[in-house]
Amino acid sequence: MIDFSGAQNINLIYYDAFAPDAQPELWTEGIFQKLYRMLLPNGVLTAYCSKGNVQRAMKAAGFEVEKLSGPPGKREMIRAGRSFRSEKYNSHPRPSHLSIIYPTAAIVALSCRK
């Protein structure tokens, strides 16, 4: 089980939860704040969902957000990070190893229950 306490130091979060219409509780500012705290300074979160309310929740949590071209069958996707557009991000040393989490909807839902 993933502990969303924010104690981890993660390089990459591939956020593949069910769509916001199916599980809106997984796409809130509060969830993204927890994920933001888990990321290292040069960490990145990616998600296939690029809805406006999801982008706003990510931005409110502190993320810088940008839309990217999506994979086949998907027009757009999101890349978000703490400061990936800044000079500081581009000059930050790259890690010798990566810490990656892939929180599927079932794991995120179970982990975020009170």
Overview of this structure, please?
- The structure is a single chain.
- This protein is of the alpha/beta class.
- It has a single domain (10-91), classed as Vaccinia Virus protein VP39 (Rossmann fold, 3-Layer(aba) Sandwich).
- Helices cover 27% and strands 25% of the residues.
- Helix 1 links the parallel strand 1 and strand 2 (39-47).
- It is globular and about 30 Å long.
- 23% of the residues are buried.
- Residues 105-114 have low confidence and may be disordered.
End-to-end distance = 14 Å
Helix percent band: 25-40%
Q: DSSP helix count?
A: 4
Strand order of the largest sheet: 3-4-2-1-5
Extract low-pLDDT stretches: 105-114
What class do helices, strands and sheet pairing give?
alpha/beta
CATH architectural grouping: 3-Layer(aba) Sandwich
Supply the key terms.
114 residues, alpha/beta, Rossmann fold, 4 helices, 5 strands, 27% helix, globular, disordered C terminus
